[in-house]
Amino acid sequence: MKREYAKETVCIQAGWQPGKGEPRVLPIYQSTTFKYETSEQMGRLFDLEDSGYFYTRLQNPTNDCVASKICELEGGVAAMLTSSGQAANYYAVFNICEAGDHVVMSSCVYGGTFNLLAVTMKKMGIACTVVDPDADEETLAAAFRPNTKCVLAETLANPALVVLDIEKFARIAHANQVPLIVDNTFPTPILCNPIKWGADIVTHSTTKYMDGHAMCVGGAIVDSGNFDWSLYPDKFPGLTTPDESYHGIVYTEKFGKAAYITKATAQLMRDLGSIQSPQNAFLLNVGLETLHLRMPRHSENALAVAEYLKNHDKVAWVKYPGLKDDPYHELAAKYMPDGASGVVAFGLKGGRKAAEAMMDKLELAAIVTHVADARTCVLHPASHTHRQMTDEQLLEAGVAPDLIRFSVGIENAGDIIKDLEQAMSAV
Ligand SMILES: *Cc1c(COP(=O)(O)O)cnc(C)c1O
What is the DSSP letter of 304? Predict the structure, then answer.
């Protein structure tokens, strides 16, 4: 957009900028391909000599409009959509890592991210050291190796609800000459902008609050443009030395601050193909238009639910960084001053069995493998999303076996609490 606007305006107006006589609403470019006049024009696109669309596996105008809106919301310089949050985190790391490299990762990340790094990328020859996000800087520094290429963590961990000290992680990453990649799915750019605090790359599962209506799986990667790859040419040869698959272009020389996203698009999308469908991007854009209205409401409702649970005699513990006595309240007040998002974690005195019995009685809150939706939903990570992890890994990830992940929607808070009340009384 021409001027700098507040987030509310960006949510509504950024991205698609129609010219005279063009559709007011973002069109779905439902086309795999794009037409050119001469063979030479098309050839130049393949050489990255001209910018333009040629095949939707790499880029699509609908997707790019939505990516640019997310980019503006996060305060980045370039962004791309991916087919899922998993693809976003995979690309974000793999864009700067190859076999023989190493990643430092917070122990409190989403189970899917943990498996991606600890199981699948390990098979690709990329090692990973898991660190306690609350460790002091000296302990964290010991995790780094000469072949470390990035640090990966979550702003507000799913489902541990550990708030990342972003500034501490940025300091430690930068002291070791590598970028900090932050998964900002739970706060969304409405509640936190990790780039402002020193993160270099921000990822999202847009499947969650950004879509907000449980319609489309998707992801996004935003580059702050702040990490200067060219200062460490030996560490990041993929960005700073000729790419033979594009006639020897050097991404940092040719694309400057857009080098990282351009490489991820030109190489990873070309070869791995995890593009978001333009249909899904269109629906994601509709979700983004109301993100600034939904996030405060999610936060407000979650705080009410957390306070209710805290005072319930059948509840053993509650975690919600918006609660004044939560161990992460101070960090939440710093990084998410306008609300701590919509997810509450708690355990019942009856443990795992009581958790399952209570969940079965819920009427409004649905048991679904989903979180961060307009509709209240609930999940028992130890039995569901984190089922593959050992008890030791669960505890390390901040996921107690009795943890109930309660994703508070934007219904009436009193109705959500009444539903909990009736389910709890039945246990
Ligand atoms: C859900 C989630 C992911 C994975 O996203 P998908 O869209 O399900 O692939 C990654 N990170 C976080 C924090 C998530 O909550």
Answer: H
Share above pLDDT 70 across residues of the chain, in percent, rounded to a whole number = 100
> From ligand 1's centre to the CA of 158, what distance in Å?
9
Q: What is the mean pLDDT of the chain?
A: 96
User: Which tokens in the block code for residue 102?
Assistant: 């190493």
Q: Which of 410, 423, 293 is nearest to 367 (CA)?
A: 423
**Nearest protein Cα to ligand 1, atom 5:** 85
Pocket test for ligand 1, best of 182, 185, 201, 284 (most atoms within 8 A of CB): 185
Question: Is 74's C-beta closer than 6 angstroms to any atom of ligand 1?
Answer: no
Per-residue pLDDT tens digits for 378-419: 999 888 888 877 778 888 777 888 999 999 999 999 999 999
Which pLDDT belongs to residue 375? 98
**Which residues make Cβ contacts (< 8 Å) with residue 4, sequence separation at least 6?**
none
* Residue 374: both structure tokens together: 């307009």
| Strand order through the sheet with 315-319 | 315-319, 343-348, 404-407, 377-379, 366-367
Peptide bond connecting 233 to the previous residue in cis, omega within 30 degrees of 0? no
52 C-alpha to ligand 1 centroid (Å): 30
Residues 258-310 pLDDT 10s: 999 999 999 999 999 999 999 999 999 999 999 999 999 999 999 999 999 99
From the CB of residue 54, how many other CB atoms can be counted at a distance below 10 Å?
16
Q: What is the pLDDT of residue 264?
A: 98
Q: Strand pairing partners for 128?
A: 103
The answer to whether the beta carbons of residues 274 and 82 sit under 8 Å apart is: yes
Cα of 108 vs centre of ligand 1, distance in Å, is: 13
State how far the Cα of 83 lies from the Cα of 85, in Å rounded to an integer. Answer: 7
Q: What string of DSSP letters covers 363-404? A: SSSEE-S--S-SS-EEE-TTTTTTTTS-HHHHHHTT--TT-E
The answer to whether residues 101 and 222 touch, using CB atoms and an 8 Å cutoff, is no
